[in-house]
Amino acid sequence: LTGVIMVLVLFLMCTASTYAIRVSNYDIFWYTHNLFFVFYMLLMVHVSGGVLKYQTNLEEHPPGCFNPNKTVRENVMVPRAFEETFPDYTTEPFPEDLSIPEPFVQNNIMRICSEEPKFQSHFPETWFWISGPLCLYCMERLYRYIRSSKSVTITSVISHPSNVLEV
Predict the structure, then answer these.
(1) Does an H or E element contain 96, and which?
(2) How far, in Å, CA of 114 to CA of 73, rounded?
(3) In the predicted model, is pLDDT for residue 121 greater than 50?
(4) Most buried by CB count within 10 Å: which residue of 6, 45, 88, 117?
């Protein structure tokens, strides 16, 4: 929901910044661009959802490894027709003289995983990218406020044609 609202706010800001709207009604341009504050707040809420995740157990489950089925061969019932078709198939456990492969052993094609992958959410870092522009904006607003609070002395006013005033 926050992503959809952010897209709508950006759409309003982009359409209001077109030349035609700026010339015809500057107030629309001005007020929609003040929606950036709403956009930033929605962005902070949007990234705190923990959707982006990273894998925490890369040693036990490297990317691309094969995670074998957990069922035990001895407990699986093999149909008689299967045994007749494949006589070399055995339900015996692994032979004593062959060792069970270690995890992470390359078996010609892929690695064998020792456990399921585990994931954890990233810590939101959006504040880092938003804080710079937001601080600049706040400093600029403070500068405007300080300048607007000072008194101004008007020295002359000239009226030009087409209702233009020179102060």
Answers:
(1) none
(2) 18
(3) yes
(4) 6
